[in-house]
Structures are given as C-alpha cells and as structure tokens.
Amino acid sequence: MRDKRWLWIALPAVVLVVAVVSAASSGSGSHASTTHASSPPHQSSARASTTGRAGAPQLRAVSAQTIGSLPAEVQDAAVAPLGGHRLVLLGGLDAVGASTPEITAIDGASAASHGTLPNAQHDAQAARLGRYVYVFGGGEFSTYDHILRYDPATGSVAQVGALPRPASDVAVAALGGTAYIVGGFDGTDFLDTIVAWRPGGEAQIVGHLPTGLRYSAVTSYGDSLIIAGGTVPSGVSEDVFRFDPAGGSLTRIGRLPAPLTHASAAVLDGRVVIVGGRHLVSGEQTATILAIDPRTGFVRRAGHLPQPLSDAAVATIGSHVIAAGGENAGAARATILALTASP
Asked: Can you list the domains of the chain with their CATH numbers?
C-alpha cells in the first residue's frame, strides 16, 4: 500500500549514532597484492587497518531501522533495485526451508507478490541491466545454469541465456551494462571464476579468484567490483578484493576484522557496507555492519542491525540501503530494514 511510503521518506531525523569500534591490525591498502585476473593471485599478509590514520576519510556511523514487512518470510533470495524506492526479490527459501518461486516487489515500506519464477529456487543472485532484471543460476534439488529475464512492468520471466557451468551460491554485481557473477558451487565443486555477461551475448569467464568461493559479499563501486569474505574450501574467508574488469586484475586490498560469509554488500555514504553474515560456515551470525573504503581496503565497524542476520536481500535505494528478509536463529525473516548514515 503506497500510503505507507511516508515511512520510507520520513525516516527519523535523529538517528541513534552507533559508536564506530576500531580493531587495530597491521598493514593497509598500500600492501595489497595485484595479479592479472587470468592467474590466481598469491595470498599476501596484507590486512586493512581498522584504526584511524592520517588522511583517512571520516566515516559516519550507520543505523538500521525496521520500516515494513514482506508478505512472507524469505532468505537467500536474489535481489535487484528497480529505480526510485523500488526493488525486487526473486526466489529464496521460505519459512519451512523450502525453495520458493515467489517474486516480491518492494516499494518503499510496502511489499507485494509480483509473479513467480518458472521453478522454485534459492541461492541465485540478480542484477538490473537496462529495463530488465536478470537472475543467474541458483538451485533447488539440482544446480541451475540458467540466466532468467524478469520484466518489472509485466512480471513475466523467460530464460535468455546460460552460464558456463551450473552455479548456485553466487554473488552478482552490475557494472557498465554488464553483470559479473562471482564464484559459486556447481553441485560438486567450489567455483573460482568471475563470469561476465551482457544481454544478447555469451557468458564468458573474465577472471579467477585465488580459490573457489561461495556466499561472498559483492558490489560494484566506480569502475571496479569489491569482493568481501565468503566460504572457501578450507572454511570462511576474511579477504577483501578489488576486481578491475577493464584491466582484468584482481587485487587484495585488505581483510575483514574476522572471517565472514553469507553477508551482503551495498554502497552507502561513499563506502561499501557489509551487512550481517556468519563467522562460521553454518553458524555464529552477526549483527555487525562493516564499512570498507573501496579505494584503500580500510575497514571499520560502522553500526549494528537490530539482531544478528545473514542471507538478507540487500540493495542501495537512493540514500539508504534496504535489507529485506534473511535468516536469524535458524529461521527466515520477513523484516524490511532501512540502513542510514547518521547526520
């Protein structure tokens, strides 16, 4: 219902400022290692400092406030912005842990069903390219290689392409009219690929990660991708990478304060914010909101969610970041949160 949009527009003028907690560690973005993306980069010992330093930009604290609810609980949904105050969630896991085909459109604080995918699925991700939203991979009882096109105007869905290999547990970001699909799982193996796809073209591998990676937090910033955390064959990653599609290079620019997976990334207040996640492969969820300077890899704790949360659908909408659904204490949630930088 659009009569609730005032909740979106008139977020409280006075925001509870969450203290930025600094955790000191060694190194900075100046010690990052860089390789051409076609060859996996070596693991360096660089760690982004979480303490202040000369010339480092001041980071405003981030607060999170509940602004609405989804029609039903969902986690692991694909998500993409639609312009204005709108975004869309596609598929995911429902309240009983089953894959769902449901598509949910969010407009401000209101949310409603807007069609279905051809099949129930979860652990896909999406990107908006032009007027359409594209969904990449995912799975239910098997892993899919499909690329689906969703039309926000009509709610229709059609398959328009295929990935080089089936892939679930992927992260996706849009940059310059191209979608980049990072990592994933093909049903047997972790994937170390960065795949690029444009509407009307073929999906192509344009880079490689140091190791297979699932459930990473990825967003575009400027002309690069920022890739943070995720699950690797040996456990949970704390690495932060920057991928340059133009030059094909992957640079390790820092590390998170602790290993993190099943988190989500978006851009807020000129920083990449990392929302929630898990410190373990299958547990220890966190309510922490991290902020990364994408130029340097400088990381700080910027705020907290109302409760620990992983696997949320997160997207930047105007001057806010929306986090919808997700998992807390083993159950899917229906909450819509708005993250805002303090005045």
From this structure: 18-341 (2.120.10.80)
